[in-house]
Design goal:
Chain B: This is ABC transmembrane type-1 domain-containing protein. The complex is a heterodimer of chains A (269) and B (254). Chain A has 269 residues and is mainly α. Chain A has one domain: MetI-like (MetI-like fold, Orthogonal Bundle). Chain A has 13 helices and no strands. Chain B is an all-alpha fold and 254 residues long. The chains are: A mainly alpha (269), B mainly alpha (254). Chains A and B meet through helix 1, helix 3, helix 4, helix 5 and helix 7 of A and helix 1, helix 3, helix 4, helix 5 and helix 6 of B.
Chain lengths: 269, 254
């Protein structure tokens, strides 16, 4: 089968045309749009505006800052949880229970928080009975971060769990027998040995956090602007596709930087 | 750990519980009632969108499974490692790209081609972003495959088509199915890409919930999510049964 060129072409054509039309051309179009103005002339004005205007750059930093917070919180929750999970008896069942919520439509889960956090919602009722009074929980920075953490949590937890699970239990036993405190075992053994899982977790949480845009409208009440919501704004509302494409290029650039810093280094064992 | 579990399930349980609320908002309790389920089944627009969403998911996953498998067969036949790696990195572009950028770049593509936005543009987009995941599921299986059987068949005079349909496809079938299922969940869960490439006439569940949620809470959506949750539970259960069954069969035949 391998030497027949006609058979090879039969397999190659659909796949290569897909690569050309839906991978290479869209990126090229995005770059082209970002480098042109409304008259269709080639220009760097969009990027110049991005850097010099007092709107875009602070917005981008803000978005990165939020994504960092979201990533940090999911990590702080996920790392101990993944460690505990790896020592539980019915691991498969627990794992299934963590994966199951990811099967529910993201929009439905987001929608649930509209009810949970609303003025007369469950959380506020709880606050009221505890004597804290009711608060405006929706449409602010905190609710945005909270719901984002909720949505991204499984994507941090699962890769970390997978890499912790691969650690040879004998190593952990040895460290205990040699008198290491549990904290030291965790920070000096489990953490470095699961670093690849942590890196993929960071990738899986940080990049989507930069581009979340339905959360900023539904939960953040437009008080939070991410790169994603800025793109949506330019494409749907103001119809300035050139600036929107410029922001999209910046987002791709941010993604590439993240991938670079979280790549797997060497194959140390 | 337990706290994480509770946190993960509170919103879902909350949605399900309130779907039985006799009142109209997600607070207070107007007594147990099925009224929102009745509303749901009377809402033909929402039911049509639900049906469209499933048709879209099944057809895009099927086509993506086909093209992805064909692509994997092609990549498997490549001898040059450098070419293979180039193809693999191009393959992964859509997997790692933020969905917003995929959405807008497809929107530009369709607009420039003069393609009208609607079911077909959404279908094409879903196929496009599902192909790489199918390929990544199928390719490792092809590489692991024992080639002696293929060689033996060739020596015995089997035609290429016969080898493919009798040996290769049955061997990689489980990974094609896994790719299909993943593509299915990608399609069902997608919001951002669909949001950009859909026109006025066509809507999927995610986009519909987004526009309804912007207008406020309606317990009909709760009833819908309760049903969706039940369906996913069933699917997980079916998948669990399927894997334990195939495991058992594999062990018996070995």
């Amino acid at each position: 089968m391998k030497d027949n060129t006609r058979a090879k072409a039969f397999f190659a054509i659909p796949y290569i045309s897909w690569l050309a039309v839906f991978v290479i051309v869209p990126i090229a179009l995005l770059v082209y749009q970002s480098l042109t103005n409304a008259q269709g002339n080639l220009t760097l004005a969009n990027f110049h505006e991005f850097i010099t205007s007092d709107v875009y750059l602070p917005m981008a930093f803000n978005s990165v800052f939020y994504a960092l917070i979201i990533t940090a919180i999911t990590f702080v929750i996920s790392f101990p949880a993944a460690y505990v999970l790896s020592r539980l008896k019915h691991r498969q069942l627990w794992l299934m229970l963590i994966i199951l919520p990811t099967w529910i439509n993201v929009l439905l889960k987001t929608y649930a928080f509209l009810g949970l956090l609303s003025k007369s919602g469950l959380i506020n009722q709880l606050f009221a009975t505890l004597g804290f009074g009711t608060h405006n929980l929706l449409f602010n920075h905190v609710s945005f971060i909270f719901v984002a953490v909720y949505l991204e949590l499984p994507f941090m937890l699962l890769p970390i769990y997978n890499s912790i699970n691969e650690i040879d239990p004998d190593i952990l036993k040895a460290s205990r027998d040699l008198g290491a405190k549990p904290v030291n075992t965790l920070t000096q053994l489990v953490f470095p040995l699961s670093i690849n899982g942590i890196k993929s977790g960071i990738q899986a949480v940080f990049i989507p956090s930069l581009s979340l845009f339905m959360l900023t409208t539904l939960i953040g009440g437009n008080k939070v602007m991410t790169l994603g919501s800025a793109i949506e704004l330019h494409f749907i509302v103001t119809q300035n596709w050139h600036m929107g494409s410029t922001i999209a290029i910046v987002l791709i650039f941010a993604m590439a930087v993240t991938m670079y810093f979280t790549r797997e280094r060497g194959k140390r064992k | 750990m337990l706290l994480v579990m509770i946190l993960l399930y509170i919103p879902i349980i909350f949605l399900v519980v309130y779907s039985f609320n006799g009142g109209t908002i997600m607070s207070g309790w107007g007594g147990f009632s099925f009224v929102h389920y009745q509303e749901l089944f009377a809402d033909t627009r929402l039911l049509k969108i639900l049906l469209d969403t499933f048709i879209l998911a099944i057809s895009s996953a099927t086509i993506a499974a086909f093209i992805g498998t064909v692509g994997a067969l092609f990549l498997d036949s490549l001898q040059n490692k450098k070419t293979l790696n180039t193809f693999l990195s191009l393959n992964n572009v859509l997997l790692v790209s933020p969905d917003v950028t995929i959405g807008v770049s497809f929107l530009i593509l369709f607009t420039i081609l003069g393609f009208s936005l609607g079911f077909v543009s959404v279908l094409i987009s879903h196929i496009a972003f599902s192909i790489p995941i199918v390929l990544l599921m199928v390719l490792p299986r092809l590489r692991e495959m024992d080639n002696t059987l293929v060689m033996a068949a060739r020596d015995l005079g089997a035609k290429r088509g016969t080898i493919l349909s009798q040996i290769v496809i049955p061997e990689i079938w489980p990974s094609i199915m896994a790719g299909f299922l993943l593509a299915l969940t990608y399609s069902l869960d997608d919001f951002a890409v669909t949001f950009f490439v859909t026109g006025n006439g066509f809507s999927t569940l995610s986009v519909e919930i987004y526009s309804r949620a912007r207008q406020g809470v309606s317990l009909e959506i709760n009833a819908l999510s309760a049903l969706m949750f039940a369906v996913s539970l069933l699917l997980v259960f079916a998948y669990y049964l399927y894997t334990t069954y195939t495991d058992k069969k594999a062990r018996l035949t070995k």
